[in-house]
Amino acid sequence: MSVVDLARLQFAGTSIYHFLFVPLTIGLALLTAILQTCWYRTDKPEYLRLTRFFGVLLVINIAVGVVTGLVQEFQFGMNWSGYSRFVGDVFGAPLAMEGLAAFFLESTFLGLWVFGRERLSRRVHLATIWAVAAGGVLSAAFIMAANSWMQNPVGYTIDPATGRAQLTSIGAVLTNPVFLRSLLHVLLASLVTASIVMLAVAAWHLRRRSHVAEFGRAARVALVVLVPVLALNLLVGSELGVTEGTYQPMKIAAAEAQWQTCQPCSFSLFQIGGGNNDQTPSKIIQVPHLLSLLATNSWNGQVVGLNELQAQYEQQYGPGDYVPNVFIQYWAMRVMAYLGSLMLVVGLWGLWRRRRLAESPWFLRVAIWCLPLPFVVNTAGWILTENGRQPWIVQGLQKTADANSPSVTAAAILTSLLIFLLLYGALAVVDWILMARYARRELPAEQPADEHEAPAPAPTY
Amino acid sequence: MTLVAFWFVVLAVVWTGFLLLEGFDFGVGMLHGVVGRDDAGRDLAVHTIEPVWDGNEVWLVVTAAVTFAAFPVWYATMFSAYYPVMVVVLVALILRGVSFEFRSHSASARARAFWGGALAGGSLVVPLGLGIVLGGLLAGVPIDSAQEFVGGAGDLFPAYALMTGATVVLVCLVHGAVFLALRTTADLRRRALGIARALAPVVAVVVTAWAAWTRVTARDGVLLSVAEFAAILAAITAAAFVHVRREGLAFAATATTMAAMTASIFSELYPRVMVSSLGPANDLTTTNTASASYALTVMTVVLAVLLPVVLLYQAWTYHVFRARLRGPVPTPQVPADAG
To answer: Quick one: A239 exposed, middle or buried, by C-beta within 10 A (0-12, 13-18, 19+)?
Structure first.
């Protein structure tokens, strides 16, 4: 494998891993804040017990999410110095804003929330969990602004002297049409992830008839969030597809393995074969007009095929292969859409049975097994959008092959790749053990027996 | 002052914020096993930093992000040149970062000891590695005229850089010991103070030697700069205050030592940001690595709005957790052992 391939493998692996934890913690922080707000408003002890129960799961996952995020921030410079040099003027600003506006907020107030319960008033303590949740949402906003610029660069000019991109309008970067839709998509996906996890954990307890009242409530909160959010997200996702299709037609054509231009275009549910060397796979069950509708929002919309786009790009950018990996695109899109729809069906089923969840063993069984789905869907979504950008690292401006660090050898990347593989594997095992242990635990007592008074402030300090 | 020079100062400030704040929690991390004789003692020592370390570490995240935004070429060359060091620092940051949470949730004594070890080891390796990087900026690494690093791993460890790494670790140790003494009572406080008293004179000597070496490395004549002089003075003052058991003043002095050391490196560097060992023509400077003025102006506005707010709520956090810990460790929001 070449240096670029290894660097890509490392970036893809570490960011996919990182993004298992990110949406879970963004969503779970919001849900925990909602539970604590319910307790604050109603004074019902079950809300407090649920807040503290899911708070443990939140805090453990934030720890892993935060440390794996450090790798991402360093990696731009370590492996992609060509990219960093070229885009830092534009791309660095949202990252710095993310640190200043989001990470300080999230980390500082997390410490206050976890350890400040006895030192803060109920109202201020509630405010700290909302600050943590706000920090998570803001970090998603800035990172999506940065990422969207790679998909659809706006608000920049190329400095003729240095050949580097320069920011000319921060307003344009923050109103990038790709950004607004993809941010919403990610935030809704975070809520879906957390509500499925909450639902699955609650279902596990309901099946064992432990704390039926409390976990029944948790399951209902999760379902009430899940169903509308997921339904909306399917729409936002399809809207995002249209937007990306406008700026990155290759991405969408590849997701349908559409080699020839079509109008109207049908959508295939499955295909056998396919890939960059097989332009005539056997498509199974074609839904007429559906691709036109998904890609262009119109019944008879035209989707330009990969072959025609390739010819256009060669004229515009010179010789080269501009078609992303079609096999990955086709299946990433379907895994995301199908499993997303499946979760919606499960959510609707749960809403229908919401008053007798504890008496619905089949629903509970299915709900528990839904646990991995949002993680698979999130991963497929990122693969769809990032693989679909290839061969570009910044659409139309810089190719991935020109973006790596010239001073870093393949051996160095291979070594770090193996180190991260081992380390992340070990972290996953520990995190899973802890999650399994705490998710299966009984609810904490209403008033912990070992609660003691806050130490008095020492006069010397 | 030009915008580019202003952002060089901002970077010196965020490095200082990181080393000064996370400096003491590195120190506490390294010392928690020595100061705490039993599980309860170790828990209490760790608990002095548990609510704040994560907020402190964001200063490092911001340091890297500000370098990326304001000096993209510096960021690109530094992180790719120091590849092996950065990998080691990242591994240490990861193990240390999860150690707080994993340690408190450990089911067995062995797991607990392992994560305690990860906390201590990570707290040593991170300041050592980043100190080597900081020293290397001034000591110089091979950078060619295309602003690319052209050396090998062996070029990353000039003697002055190693000295800087060791000095930063030592200052973290005494800074952390004084912080522990300030935040605890009884035995723990006595032992922390004992460690600080033993370390502080050594640290004062090492900082003095480091400051002189900094001057020599910068080839700026023999007279110390104001910042270097301040670092030496602060280190000696810290030793004196520790000796007379004035913990609050000693902490101010160790914090000043750390700030003055950072100021020394950055003032000796300016207007360079990375010295090239292949000749001054290849030095990376503020102007040949900086972003253009529009991006820097945007960042200036953002900084002016956000930094005061951040400082305010971080200061408030320290106010909330100002009480000395008497143990046992307070029940967190999410008790580890309830069930």
So the answer is: middle
Question: Across the interface, do B80 and A442 touch by the CB < 8 Å criterion?
Answer: no
- Per-residue pLDDT at B339: 31
Q: The tokens of A41 are what?
A: 């408003």
Q: Which residues are within 8 A (CB) of A160 and not within 5 positions of it... i.e. 6 or more apart?
A: none
Chain A residues within 8 A of B295 when measuring between CB atoms: 89-90, 92-93, 166-167
Confidence (pLDDT) at B107: 81
Are B213 and B160 in contact, with CB atoms under 8 Å apart? yes
- Rounded Cα gap, residues B51 and A140, in angstroms: 24
How far apart (Å, rounded) are the C-alpha atoms in residues A394 and A75? 17
Phi and psi dihedrals of A289, rounded to 5?
70, -10
Closest Cα of chain B to A68: distance in Å?
A: 7
Among A126-135, A199-208, B37-46, name the one with the lowest average pLDDT. B37-46
Put simply, whether B185 touches A (Cβ < 8 Å) is yes
- Outline where A267-325 has alpha helix (H): 290-296, 306-317
| Owner of token pair 């895994």 | A335
pLDDT at A446: 61
Query: Under 8 Å CB-to-CB from A228, ≥6 apart: which residues?
Result: none
User: Comparing C-alpha atoms, which of A203, A200, A201, A194 is closest to residue A225?
Assistant: A194
Q: What is the pLDDT, as a whole number, of residue B328? A: 64
**CA–CA dist A78, B87 (Å, integer):** 9
Q: What is the pLDDT of residues A138-164, one digit of tens each?
A: 999 999 999 999 999 999 999 998 889
Q: How far is CA B32 from CA A189, A223, A432, in A?
A: 41, 45, 27
Residues B191-213 pLDDT 10s: 999 999 999 999 999 999 999 99
**Residues B298, A93: C-beta atoms closer than 8 Å:** yes
Q: What pLDDT sits at residue B327?
A: 67
Of A55, A448, A457, the CB nearest to B331: A448
Looking at the predicted structure, is the pLDDT value of residue A325 above 60? Answer: yes
The half-sphere exposure of B16 on its side-chain side, counting CA atoms within 13 A, is 22
**CA B120 vs CA A34, B103, B191: distances in Å:** 37, 12, 17
Whether the pTM exceeds 0.80: the reply is yes
User: How many other C-beta atoms lie within 10 A of the C-beta of residue A158?
Assistant: 12
Q: Are B181 and B248 in contact (CB under 8 A)?
A: no
CA atoms of A374 and A250, how far apart (whole Å): 26
Cβ atoms of A229 and A195 closer than 8 Å: yes
A85 in B contact zone (CB under 8 Å)? yes
Give the model's pLDDT for residue A274: 78
Instruction: Select from B57, B64, B185 the Cβ nearest to the Cβ of A74.
Output: B64
C-alpha A60/C-alpha B26 separation (Å) is 21
B64 touches chain A (CB under 8 A): yes
Which burial class, exposed, middle or buried, applies to B60 when counting CB atoms under 10 A from its CB (0-12, 13-18, 19+)?
Answer: buried
B178 contacts chain A (CB < 8 A): no
- Bridge partners of A394, per DSSP, are A398
Q: B193 to each of A148, B24, B172, B203, how far by Cα in Å?
A: 52, 14, 14, 15
CATH code of domain B21-294? 1.20.1630
